[in-house]
């Protein structure tokens, strides 16, 4: 559908960024996407999904933001093209638009129309679509490991902190009690602050410190012993796990 924005994934390890962009760029009038994404959306609007994906990979702004959240490694955003087996850990978007539920999987050639929907039942239709996708993924697991496949579900929603602040302000203007909402707001703000700190730690590049530590251990002749002890501990854990299965 020309009314459904979809960019094909052509860049490796970018499926999360791809899913987020394929979601928010379908609602540029409902979501404050900022000037950079607005300009990108207008620029690629008439392009086909493949070309949109290529333009996404060439966007300096999107690349910089993506890489700022990536775990430190020797690989960059543009290292190699995406392949069909890149969906081992994969993000797929599901949206309600134009009276239908669509699956936006960057590894597919285009958006997939799953079912018709209305403003009254689109939430249930979205749930049904996600459940069907999970069952499909488990069913094609020919290695018989389907029971161990994990799934995580995330939603693009309004800012809960901002929504609570607006709700509290409205109730206060009406001289209504707001104690419970203020407690919820305080909890959310605390969670958000903890999340920011965790994100800083996750994004920090510890690799130089680790390499320096390994070099120091090697110079002192302790590295080999530590590695052997670690290997023995790992083997013991594997044996213990195998015994439990028996």
Give a short summary of the structure.
The chain is mainly alpha-helical.
Q: How does this structure look, described?
A:
The chain is 54% helix and 6% strand. The protein is built from nine helices and three strands. Helix 6 (160-173) runs antiparallel to helix 7. The chain is mostly helical and 246 residues long. The chain has helices at 15-24, 34-44, 49-58, 60-69, 122-139, 160-173, 179-203, 207-219, 223-245; strands at residues 93-97, 100-104, 112-116. The termini are far apart.
User: Can you give the helix content as a percent range?
Assistant: 40-55%
Mean pLDDT: 86
Unreliable stretches: 74-82
Give the spatial strand order of the biggest sheet: 1-2-3
| Beta-strand percentage range | 5-15%
Tell the overall outline: extended
Number of extended strands: 3
H/E order of the elements?
HHHHEEEHHHHH
Judged by helices, strands and strand pairing, the structural class is mainly alpha
Please tally the helical runs, counting DSSP H or I stretches of 4 or more residues.
9
Distance between the termini: 53 Å
Tell me about the largest β-sheet: 3 strands, antiparallel
- Gyration radius over CA: 23 Å
What keywords describe this structure?
246 residues; mainly alpha; three-stranded antiparallel sheet; 54% helix
